[in-house]
Amino acid sequence: MYVGKKKDEKVKVTCIIYTSEHFEEQKVKSIDDCFPLKDKPAITWINVDGVHKLDKIEQIGKQLKIHPLALEDIVHTGQRPKMEDFEDYLFIVLNMLQYDEEISEIKTEQVSLILGSNYVVSFQEDEGDVFGLIRERIRADRGRTRKMGADYLAYSLVDAIVDHYFMVLEKVGEQIEDIEDELVKNPTPEVLHTIHSLKRELIYLRKSVWPLREVISRLERWESPLIDKSIDIYLRDVYDHTIQVIDALETFRDMLSGMLDIYLSSVSNRMNEVMKVLTIIATIFIPLTLIAGIYGMNFRYMPELESPWGYPMVYVIMLAVGLEMLTYFRRKQWL
Amino acid sequence: MYVGKKKDEKVKVTCIIYTSEHFEEQKVKSIDDCFPLKDKPAITWINVDGVHKLDKIEQIGKQLKIHPLALEDIVHTGQRPKMEDFEDYLFIVLNMLQYDEEISEIKTEQVSLILGSNYVVSFQEDEGDVFGLIRERIRADRGRTRKMGADYLAYSLVDAIVDHYFMVLEKVGEQIEDIEDELVKNPTPEVLHTIHSLKRELIYLRKSVWPLREVISRLERWESPLIDKSIDIYLRDVYDHTIQVIDALETFRDMLSGMLDIYLSSVSNRMNEVMKVLTIIATIFIPLTLIAGIYGMNFRYMPELESPWGYPMVYVIMLAVGLEMLTYFRRKQWL
Amino acid sequence: MYVGKKKDEKVKVTCIIYTSEHFEEQKVKSIDDCFPLKDKPAITWINVDGVHKLDKIEQIGKQLKIHPLALEDIVHTGQRPKMEDFEDYLFIVLNMLQYDEEISEIKTEQVSLILGSNYVVSFQEDEGDVFGLIRERIRADRGRTRKMGADYLAYSLVDAIVDHYFMVLEKVGEQIEDIEDELVKNPTPEVLHTIHSLKRELIYLRKSVWPLREVISRLERWESPLIDKSIDIYLRDVYDHTIQVIDALETFRDMLSGMLDIYLSSVSNRMNEVMKVLTIIATIFIPLTLIAGIYGMNFRYMPELESPWGYPMVYVIMLAVGLEMLTYFRRKQWL
Amino acid sequence: MYVGKKKDEKVKVTCIIYTSEHFEEQKVKSIDDCFPLKDKPAITWINVDGVHKLDKIEQIGKQLKIHPLALEDIVHTGQRPKMEDFEDYLFIVLNMLQYDEEISEIKTEQVSLILGSNYVVSFQEDEGDVFGLIRERIRADRGRTRKMGADYLAYSLVDAIVDHYFMVLEKVGEQIEDIEDELVKNPTPEVLHTIHSLKRELIYLRKSVWPLREVISRLERWESPLIDKSIDIYLRDVYDHTIQVIDALETFRDMLSGMLDIYLSSVSNRMNEVMKVLTIIATIFIPLTLIAGIYGMNFRYMPELESPWGYPMVYVIMLAVGLEMLTYFRRKQWL
Amino acid sequence: MYVGKKKDEKVKVTCIIYTSEHFEEQKVKSIDDCFPLKDKPAITWINVDGVHKLDKIEQIGKQLKIHPLALEDIVHTGQRPKMEDFEDYLFIVLNMLQYDEEISEIKTEQVSLILGSNYVVSFQEDEGDVFGLIRERIRADRGRTRKMGADYLAYSLVDAIVDHYFMVLEKVGEQIEDIEDELVKNPTPEVLHTIHSLKRELIYLRKSVWPLREVISRLERWESPLIDKSIDIYLRDVYDHTIQVIDALETFRDMLSGMLDIYLSSVSNRMNEVMKVLTIIATIFIPLTLIAGIYGMNFRYMPELESPWGYPMVYVIMLAVGLEMLTYFRRKQWL
User: Fold this and answer.
1) Range B12-265: architecture per CATH
2) CB distance B203–C255 less than 8 Å?
3) A213: which chain E residues are within 8 Å (Cβ-Cβ)?
4) pTM
């Protein structure tokens, strides 16, 4: 059962066949068209865009003799990154991350790879991926891809996915810097919400990257005839990259929780300042009001009231009391 | 000693016997009726609903030659998920979770499995379980169950239980989303209590799932003639599912603690706002009251009192002071 | 050097000797009286109550040829649970917990076990223990104890101690539920202190149980002729129980820290409510006081003062202002 | 380069040579004087007080053929506890803790041990150590030291250091209990500072003890001809003691963080109480002031003013309002 | 692709060739000039300052036959510390830290080492490093460097980098002490920002040191003909130093979080004090204002107003009330 959004789009199958001398690329209807060179030294890369048409995927699965459980994981997207050895082929599940600039959100897409002796099948949920560079390199015979086996192709795909994580991280890093500035200037509750939504994004990223680290580490240590020893050094390189991604995530997380502390303390600082100044004003005026109240009393015998200097003296006294309190507050460093 | 709630319900024993050709299902009185095919290639699944009648369970235990310690664990529900190898059979304890819609609560029920060479015995606390689909598949000979051994049946039962965890998680996820909305709209102390009761539910879930992960991992790596190598790939699949459950639990936990932060800060934000506006009002009126007090004094010589413009001037001064304070507050961004 | 409280009580030595046919129990003066059956197939259980009389313990140690370091650990109570193999015997240190209902406190007592080939010696700090049931079972020849070796007796003692942990946990659980109710009704600082003292109790419990887990796990995996393979399954059972105790402790700890959060937030909620209502009252009356102050001024030309409607109009204005503020507060949901 | 405080004190070298029959102790100038018995079965313990004179230490190092790196660690105090095997000798670095009663502080001193086949060299930063008991035992031929090899002597030194940790812990425990009392009686900011300085002390202690645990564990498992198998049981005993020290440290840490919570909540409780009572007083008087203000107004037509009962009635009304508010507050449990 | 800041500076290559007898140092244009002694027993140390000129680095890489992936890591600075074995050479990436006094900030620079059988190549981002002492030692033939192989030289470089960490830590320690003083004297929000920026610095330091620990530990355990057994003890020494750095970092982190607690509690203490004193003043004056208001009422029959003692009596009453409240507050310890 496919669990993602329902769509009407067709399942698109593209097929790239290459040797170091030869290269062929075509959009095919049936996957059988892709295997004219089977058992020959050519490398075949079949890319399937769209896993929502069950019958189509099942048909592909049957043709490639993929185990029903693997097929289920391909269709039932949202799997944890993992690697399974089915002897004839390795089955690898990854999450491809892309940053959607428009809605400022990270889009996750499951990519499932089947690595056989001389072919790689990649299943994606949607069109649009991060493999453009690899395709171009194969077409133009740049880099090592055309000279190496299917295992190197699989490595290239994994590497492209992991490399794209850095771009997503960069975007997240930019967002964090943006908030940081705003935190100092204007600590609104919106900043808090942004911090929390960034935190959640990091949680999702971690959920994708941690198992990925495991997958690549297992790939490197795996004793399989499908992966040549010469690929190990490349896998170790991807592994280092995932570790760097994890490091960056941990740093971002520490930074965010530090920012939360700063937010909370600057909010309370602001509030404290407000309360302090206001209370000071109130406190200064209350004794003055008492003085005014005293001379508003209606006692018959109040000598001050008769004196022509009484009224101005009251102003002098009020000024003196007010200034005295101000200096007291200033000495106590409350102002 | 049975530790759950006392009940008068009868212990119900159901017996399903099948080969790839044959199928038989009956409610039995004595467990002996279930073993006509013993030592024959048929697979027998005995399901026992209710473990509160000690004598009945002991009798079943004696007939199946179950070790007293295992029997104790069956009856003394509330066990931690675990797996024990008693050579003739494997003993597996699991927690079956069901979400009770009426009281919005998760119900835990202990399921104990005995996996012999050609039989599986399942003990449940109550009637009602998550094995309906498996029974139907056996009856209608759909899927692989009828073609495989007792180990596959045991796997199917474990798989059904773990799959049901996802449904429980979905319900918890819905509740979390509900609170999230309310958190923004109206942060009442009730929200806090709901967050905490959800947290507790997650604690209980974690207590069920973490040891389950261990149990399944041990099952997969276990060298026992009772589990065929071909079952390993299925067990690895269930294992992946438990890891996904754990991942989801961790994510929920992180989300809940983030929501706690938001709750606390929005409560204090609200309070701060209340205090601020109120204090501002008080502060504006206190100097005005002083002015009124001053002209309420009874000094004989107060020239302002005699002037016909005195009274309206006081209003002008009060307005000026009030507006001045308002602009000051606005400039300081306290309003 | 004995480190517990000094006491004058005598050291009491009890001796139980049994085979599957024979049983004998007596209080002895010298430990030599206990070994008439040595090298015979009978099992001897020597229980020593009181480890404060150094000479007595040393004498027992010499008779049993206990290593000085083990003897030191027996006397110097407050040891961490541990297991040592001295070849001729295993030395096991455990903490026996008992809940003292009167002072609502957990009492810890160190129990040291010496497991030889056909004898068990148990050292306790005080009289009174959790082994009553075992003694009765031996006397009445119920259960398996009389039929099994010294290793089973040692297991029974450990099992009795661990089983008693559950009773202590139950008491702690009851206390937690009691506070939980009070937390909602009346969050006083006393509740906080109770939460903290419960937290401390859990810390002490954890200190007893975590190393115990290790001890039992090592006992199970230990290759010693003193422990028969058939005992392993029983040890695994005790092991599962300690894990359950640890699980319960962790759950209690999580619950307590959740309760701390609720306490703090309900205290601040209460305070906020107090401050809010009080400030509202103050804020409503301050403008009214200003109005009264204005008409208390002594200006000669104040037309309102001459009007017969002036006085009642002031009341109307005050009412209007007061009601206006109340509706404003209500609209802002501060009331 | 020596990194501790510069001093003029001399380096003091003491030499103890013993067999089970013979004993000799002397303060020597040159370390050569200590080896008349070299290659004979006697055990030599050379103790060096003061590591600040580089030439002296280098000279000792040359005579004993100590590796330059080990020598560097001896002089460059502040090392992490560690153990190195240089084949001819083991090199052990430890921290000796002493509680300075006068300034209520823990003093750390690095002790470096060289354990050869028949000699032990101990380097200390200052005079004054925790080895007094060991010296007396050797002199008086009490205990096992004289009968055992250099490895037992090294064990004794390590054991003496670890045993002294308990005395330091006891002092820390006393300090914690002192604060605990004060926390309830009078939660001043000084208490907070004491809690934090205790926390820091625990951090330093942990830094000494955790690697020590490792060192002793490695010593026990180390396959070296320098450590006899018979010493293992003693090392295991020291190991248990370090674990107990670590346990105590963790408990202290938990207690301190609990005390921090109590401090913070009792400070805020106190503040809340102050604010509450004060605000209540203010709130009661504000309506009364309004009443007084109303009858201070100068309207010509105010019938109450003419009435002889007006004045006493105002008092009655004020009393009624004040009592009403008091009962309201009391009913709301704010008083 | 080089990812650091663009610069126009030239790439500087320096070459040091030495045997125990011979020494030569020169700035070279082409790296070929450095290998006149290749395959001879001389040790060659090539230092490259500046990795921003891709063509230059690639050319060096080709000459030294460095694997493209290693070359990529050299140029793409910001790598995690790591060690790779390429059989012919070991590739080590480290972070060199330097404290920039002027801007009070830690500067990180990536240093990549290539350790061949008789040569070491070091790549640095900028001129200026911590290897001055090593160069001098080689020139003057002090220490062991000239007598040992390339592996010892590589160790020396790593050791110099790690030793410099202590100087950076010292600077951080000084900053922490500075804040600590200010925290007590004047807890401003700036202190909070400094604490947080120090925290972030510690995070970056940890990111450099933790993987370094791993690198050195792997180097020590690595079975490679390029590292002689005799170097192991030196590597273990560097390893101990990294552990000490990590310990110091953890201690600093604990201290900073303790300081955060103190900051927050002293800010709230200050605020509480302000609020308390101010509220006390307000509370004392409010009842006095009421008294003045009462005698400002215009009732015709107020006997006090007629009395010649009325006015002074009011002062007496006000004084009495004021003093009474002050003593009450003092008794409650609010003053």
Assistant:
1) 2-Layer Sandwich (3.30)
2) yes
3) none
4) 0.81
